[in-house]
Predict the 3D structure of the following.
Amino acid sequence: MGTVEPQVAADAQAAVTDGFQLVIDALKLNGIDTIYGLPGIPITDLTRRAQAEGLRVLSFRHEQSAGYAASIAGFLTQKPGICLTVSAPGFLNGLNALAHATTNCFPMILVSGSSEREIVDLQQGDYEEMDQLAIAKPLAKAAFRVLHAADIGVGVARAIRAAVSGRPGGVYLDLPAKLFAQTIDVAAGRSSLIKVVDPAPRQIPAPEALERALDLLRGAKKPLIILGKGAAYAQADADIKSLVEKTGIPYLPMSMAKGLLPDTHEQCASAARSFVLPAADVVMLIGARLNWLLSHGKGKTWGGKGHKDWGGQKFIQVDISPTEADSNVRVDAPVVGDIGSCVCGLLAGLGNWPQPPADWLNAIHEKKSANVAKMAETLAKNPSPMNFHSALAVVRDIVRANPDAMFVNEGANALDFTRSIVDMYKPRKRIDVGTWGIMGVGMGYCVAAAVVTRQPVIAVEGDSAFGFSGMEVETICRYNLPVCVVILNNNGVYKGTDINPRGGDVAPTVFVKDARYEKLMEAFGGVGVYARTPAELRQGMEQALRSRKPTLINAVIDETAGTESGRITSLNPSAKKK
Ligand code: ADP
Ligand code: TPW
């Protein structure tokens, strides 16, 4: 081989691109500006180079938190949240979040590096060997692997389309280590990339489906609308508000749909939930499934005689998934399409809409008033030590004064009480445990919420719930995010008073008493607050929102407060023999 002139060598070098670069280019071309991940073989250089190319690369302490962050970024932005992990164990740590995204209908792409295919497939024991694609498939909406640099553009395009089109979900993209260093001609690389056109196409509902739904709703004596997180995701806020207000129909927001219309809205029936569900005759679900969170549309919650009996309601279901209707009970009027188009179609067909019968509205109003008054009495009490109610009365005031703040919530009692006490005023502010009632989303959600919305974040966490992602307070401090974590600390899972009848170890639900969680935040330069009274809690929260400094408030509450599993005690299997 002869020697090569230096200039020629430089030109030759400049004329090729590699797998690292093509992944970055493909993401950027599709408007993706943030990666949530954790570096290591084989993706460390990908994180460095992505950062050098202007992508925001947020590094977490555990892939699960990075994954949850990506999933909720997807929910908030309608763009797939990207989680980047290393092979086998990193991939598995991220997989929980991928499954969570699929279950919750959030668009997310888990991108994992993987080991050498030839060795993995012959099971010869590679570094972090695992057939990741096969493992991801059942938990993802779709899963792809790219073997050649020239296919990176297609791989990323397919992943984006799969994540955001139709019912959104989690997508897995497998990138073997060898791919990153592969080089191809720059021009060929450039032309292999795909800018996805119309990644989530509108899906227009059939006119007869709209008519069927409107006919059913028009004839109802006791109509009810249920808004789910699909409705929040759809970002059709103004039309949803119009539909609710023009029809005059009372509505119930599911947890993450709170604030789609302000919870203080006259038509909001949350405070009369147990009255309206069994009493309603026609129920229109908009982006909500009749899963366990709605008692499967039957049973006593819905006025059915027995555990599994239909309560007699007729259902209209507005959903993008054509197979969702009839999943639990008969749906008389499915309206299949994207919520924006469906709601727009419903609005157009309203005509001269008759308001719901006054006796229905009055009955709801009465129940609401009575329940609100009862709750106000409870909230006004100031017991010592604090309990869930007296602490949450403070949180409720702070959220009312800061309606733009994002709100993260997880725990059992800490979740259930907060959901019913703390009103939300704007769409997509409340993000929580979702369809699975999962613990561990907390700090990952805080990071993504702060980064995506640039608003301050308030997180109300059970002490157990917080522990699942607690180390990410370092991440919050590192990026100096305006996050105020409030731990409702009752010394354990559900509460802190269980006793081990045999002595020795403490009971499985009990933690170290009077743990000083606030010091964890101080360890990384954030602000820690130890709050034993509502006044101390209020002061801490106000200061956190003013300063925008990472803050953790350890709100000590009565360790006897709380019930097993919060409001879902009945889901615990109970043995006949104790
Ligand atoms: P919740 O837990 O709030 O009751 P679910 O997660 O059970 O809500 O239901 C959300 C539903 O919304 C899913 O069935 C999903 O298919 C649907 N969905 C999500 N995005 C859209 C959209 N853009 N248009 C129509 N339906 C959607
Ligand atoms: C991934 C089971 C549900 S709620 C909860 C656990 C462990 C914690 C409740 O205690 P906390 O709240 O947070 O202190 P509080 O107010 O009731 O005292 N693992 C996962 N997800 C779930 N849901 C569990 C376990 C669980």
Remarks:
- Residues 432 and 438 are 9 Å apart (CA to CA).
- Residues 104-105, 167-168, 228-230, 233-234, 254, 256-257, 287-289, 291, 293, 319-321, 324, 338-339, 435 surround adenosine-5'-diphosphate (ligand 1) (CB under 6 Å).
- Residues 358-380 form the longest helix (23 residues).
- The chain is about 40% helix and 15% strand.
